[in-house]
Amino acid sequence: MYQKSVNLLIPAAPFVRLVREISFALSPDITRWTGEALIALQEAAEDFVVHLMEDAMLCAFHAKRVTLMKKDFELARRLGGKGQIW
Question: Does 1.10.20.10 match the CATH number of domain 12-79?
Fold first, then answer.
């Protein structure tokens, strides 16, 4: 694991905008989020992405490459039980 900081990596404002956009698309009734909920969601999202990157990197190393490719992410997602994205 290379990450040295425990701080969140994605800037808060764009993340909040994305959450609101997605939640409105899924359910227009959800218009408010608590600060704690947004932080928890961001922590979970960043954790997911970091672990996906780690798994994809292992797939690339197994193929004797150092360059990540789309197929590495697809394999990592499939092996991790994540299946297809929406």
Answer: yes
